[in-house]
Design brief:
15% strand, Nonspecific Lipid-transfer Protein, Chain A, alpha+beta, seven-stranded mixed sheet, six-stranded mixed sheet, Metallo-beta-lactamase, Chain A
């Protein structure tokens, strides 16, 4: 009897799945969750073509054009302030003071700083630049190009800016709370900022492209505290530093001009969570930063990445709607969590009052609201969603295999996904075909269906981030691109601080291979006064030793090498054997074979691509940073 009952239950479940596979679901999606963007499930939407040929959701293109400089522009506000916009994803703001010029933000590369300087001198003023102010670390990397003599300029910034820039560079460019993971965040940033999309054509990027370029960072020479006042180049300025948006920020208030310069008011809804991964972005701090600006009652609201808003009433209205949107997003996320909603249920829980949804600066042309509530859940609750069935789930491939079998096999799933595509139910098609892709990612028909679904999702996306991730993945599935899993720091960055990367190397140990190993390896950097760092490989764990000579266990293996050679070993650009044979490394203790055996316990940078290439590469890829000088990514 029990066996028969089980057979009936399995049959009922299989029939239910079969109905899901063959029954149109866009009506279900629209009625079950009214906040779901039903254009991904066959709802009404219009695609248009951008000037560069990009096929894009018409509302997304219209909204993006409303709040940013879409071509190189120098806007004179008429009060001694100019905005250089459209040359970069960041504006460069120039303030004329009695004794010279003050520049707010210098771009995110040396080339951008150089270009801004050329525009200043040709279209604004030939007066000397007396001060540079950084809104935050992302746009502080062109300052050295803006002056001939760095000692002649005051560089003003947040007390944490210098350390933040250094940490960003060490992790590979992308801001990272866990620096060892910087290479993964950098690689994801490459996707987010359109590096795998073409300049023109249906798949073309809409937002700015990510580049890795040489930088010319001038360190902050004058840190400012919250509410501090300074007279700079004859002009009284006040600085606010307590609150942050996506980074530690400096908000500048110029009382004489009734102008605020800031990085809190963006050209799009505040990106409270970034798909590339980042440190937690505290909505409460973002709200407080906006309210602080509101309380100054400015006439000019001048923004790091958006066009300005002018007029007390206009500024007040824009700030109110923008601040209320962040408040709504945060408070309603907490409301949903209090109601017991899981992260996936929180995605479409937030209802936006129409006046907030309609405000031009609140448009989701970058990040999108469904991504923000789950991030807040994970920040407080972690991954567990209170569903005990998820405590020990089957591995993804095992789950996919069982579900595909239950659905009738690979061909049935492919047919159902293709039918969903034809019904324009792109989200369901992508979700369904992913089970078959999980089983065999080299199945060309499966890849084609998944690519078609993702491309449509990207074209229909409101935000540039979703477009970039979806269409980049589609192109990789088709073999047009190869998306890197990680992008490590450049050799120059590693060589500048080799002991830090000895520490980072510890996380790459393979505990299966090292389970029965107990040895200490020491690296002696002979170009740095024989500075040392080591690792104790102890039965599956690698402990970093900042001072091996003072450690309780003596070294078993010692390698003398230059910082540059260590960088090449770290990046797998050379082998220990090759370094020794070329004279770039010496085995001071132990043997070369023993040293090689120890280094082989650590992962190499391999399995490089997120989507397996249809044609396997014959040689490893050249990581972008490995071919560049010290650099910083264009990050927001």
């Amino acid at each position: 009897m029990f066996f028969n009952r089980m057979l009936r239950l399995i049959a009922i479940f299989a029939i239910s799945l079969s109905l899901l596979l063959t029954t149109p679901t866009k009506v279900l999606a629209a009625t079950y969750d009214p906040n779901y963007p039903d254009r991904y499930m066959g709802g009404e939407a219009t695609l248009t073509t951008a000037p560069n040929g990009a096929v894009i959701y018409d509302e997304a293109l219209e909204a993006a054009n409303a709040t940013t400089y879409n071509e190189p522009t120098v806007e004179n506000l008429g009060n001694g302030i100019w905005i250089i916009g459209g040359y970069s994803i960041v504006n460069c703001i120039v303030i004329e003071a009695p004794d010279g010029l003050i520049v707010y933000d210098t771009g995110d590369s040396a080339e951008q700083g150089k270009r801004f300087r050329e525009v200043i001198e040709s279209e604004i003023s030939t007066k000397p630049i007396k001060a540079i102010i950084y809104s935050h670390s992302h746009y502080a990397l062109g300052g050295g190009e803006m002056v001939d003599d760095p000692d002649s300029v005051m560089v003003i910034g947040h007390p944490k800016l210098n350390d933040t820039v250094e940490a960003n560079l060490q992790s590979g460019g992308a801001p990272s709370a866990i620096p060892e993971l910087g290479p993964v965040l950098t690689a994801r940033a490459f996707v987010q900022f359109n590096n795998y999309l073409p300049e023109e054509g249906a798949d073309a990027a809409i937002d700015g492209r990510l580049t890795i370029e040489p930088t010319n960072f001038l360190k902050v020479t004058k840190t400012v505290e919250d509410e501090e006042e300074l007279v700079v180049a004859g002009l009284t300025l006040q600085f606010f530093t307590e609150y942050s948006s996506d980074d530690y920020c400096v908000t500048l208030w110029i009382p004489e001009k009734e102008a605020v310069l800031n990085n809190f008011f963006w050209e799009t809804t505040p990106n409270l969570y970034s798909l590339r991964g980042d440190v937690y972005r505290d909505p409460l701090s973002w709200i407080d930063g906006l309210r602080e600006i509101r309380d100054l009652n400015p006439t000019y609201l001048i923004n790091a990445t958006a066009v300005p808003i002018i007029g007390k009433a206009e500024v007040a209205e824009a700030l109110k709607n923008y601040t209320d949107l962040v408040t709504l997003t945060y408070d309603q996320s907490l409301r949903g969590i209090l109601r017991g909603l899981r992260p996936d249920e929180l995605r479409y829980f937030i209802y936006k009052p129409q006046h907030l949804a309609d405000a031009s600066y609140n448009a989701e042309t970058y990040g999108e609201t469904p991504w923000f509530p789950p991030a807040m859940f994970y920040y407080q609750m972690g991954w567990y969603d209170r569903d005990p069935s998820q405590l020990f789930p089957l591995p993804p491939q095992e789950t996919a295999q069982r579900l595909v079998t239950l659905m009738g096999g690979r061909d049935a799933v492919v047919a159902a996904a293709q039918e969903a595509l034809e019904r324009e139910e792109y989200a369901w098609a992508a979700q369904l075909i992913n089970y078959a892709y999980e089983i065999d990612p080299m199945d060309v028909e499966v890849r084609t269906i998944k690519a078609d679904a993702l491309r449509k999702i990207g074209q229909l996306a409101m935000g540039s981030i979703a477009r970039a991730f979806a269409i980049s993945e589609a192109r990789a599935l088709e073999g047009e691109e190869r998306i890197l899993k990680l992008i490590p720091p450049s050799p120059a960055i590693i060589a500048a601080d080799p002991t830090t990367y000895v520490n980072y190397h510890r996380v790459r140990i393979d505990p299966r291979q090292a389970e029965n190993i107990d040895k200490v390896i020491t690296f002696i950097f002979d170009d740095r006064d024989n500075e040392m760092a080591g690792l104790h490989i102890r039965r599956g764990v690698a402990e970093f030793l900042p001072e091996p000579v003072n450690y309780s266990q003596p070294s078993d293996i010692e390698i003398a090498l230059s910082s540059a050679t260590w960088a090449n070993l770290y990046l797998n650009l050379t082998t220990l054997e090759a370094a020794v044979d070329s004279g770039n490394a010496r085995i001071e203790k132990g043997s070369r074979d023993e040293a090689t055996e120890i280094l082989d316990l650590f992962d190499k940078f391999r399995d490089f691509f997120t989507v397996p290439p249809l044609v396997p590469p014959t040689v490893p890829p050249v990581f972008p940073s490995a071919a560049s000088s010290p650099s910083q990514l264009q990050i927001r």
